Amino acid sequence: MKVLFAATLLLFTTLVKAQSTDQSQLPASFQKKLDDGKLIFTKPEGTIEVLVIPNTGVKYDYALKVKDKNVEVRYIIMPLTKDFFDAYEKRDKTPGDTVFNPNRMYVRLPAIMYNKIAEGKLKLEEIKLQPMHAKDQGADGGSMFAGPIGTTFGQKYTFSFFAVIHKDYAADVYALYLFEDQATMFDQMKDIMKNTDFTRSVRFKP
Fold first, then answer.
1. 189 Cβ partners below 8 Å, 6+ apart?
2. 3-state DSSP: the chain helix, strand, coil percent, rounded to 5?
């Protein structure tokens, strides 16, 4: 599994150029989350917007399909707004309090989220995200994971590469690259990274 993570990380950190898109064309709800999270979105070349599927167990905000590949990318944006921090500071503090500071949710929440997406195919303790370079996205931290997903979220896809970036007092961003199966993931990711810059499709404002 460590070899899988290392190879995937090497693929994912290969940077290539992307074309910008008119952000006014983005869905209003997605654009608001980007604005609240101090984020910029750039649509990668060779992709088209696809409809968000409701009732997938884990709600996502926006999705793109690679035109010449059976690959879909789904984005989840979690702005770290003032309300988060107000609720955290005003909570009833008790001995053994395990409530996470909003700036630390990205350490624990991604594994819980992926566990739900996997629908029993992985135990929570098996989901060990690996560090990922995220400075190019203006992030304070990043992590990644690759593993199977369930049919409720994945529909026709069975395997995913999961990338997380975080910036304090800004947002947590989750991107799920969905593939038909594990066997095709590496070849398809190589082709994607040669032509488009998915690593910077969502990045934090300076």
1. 8, 11, 12, 161, 177
2. 35, 25, 40
Q: Is the whole-model pTM more than 0.90?
A: no
- What is residue 31's three-state secondary structure? helix
What residues contact residue 93 under an 8 Å CB cut-off, 6+ apart?
A: none
Measured over the CA atoms of residue 30, residue 206, residue 65 and residue 55, the dihedral's sign is negative
What are the boundaries of each domain within the chain? 2-204
Residues 202, 172: contact at Cβ < 8 Å?
no
pLDDT tens for 5-35 read 455 555 554 333 333 344 558 999 999 999 9
Residue 39 contacts by C-beta under 8 Å, 6 or more apart in sequence?
33, 77, 170, 171, 173, 202, 203, 204, 205
Give the tokens for residue 100: 């996470």
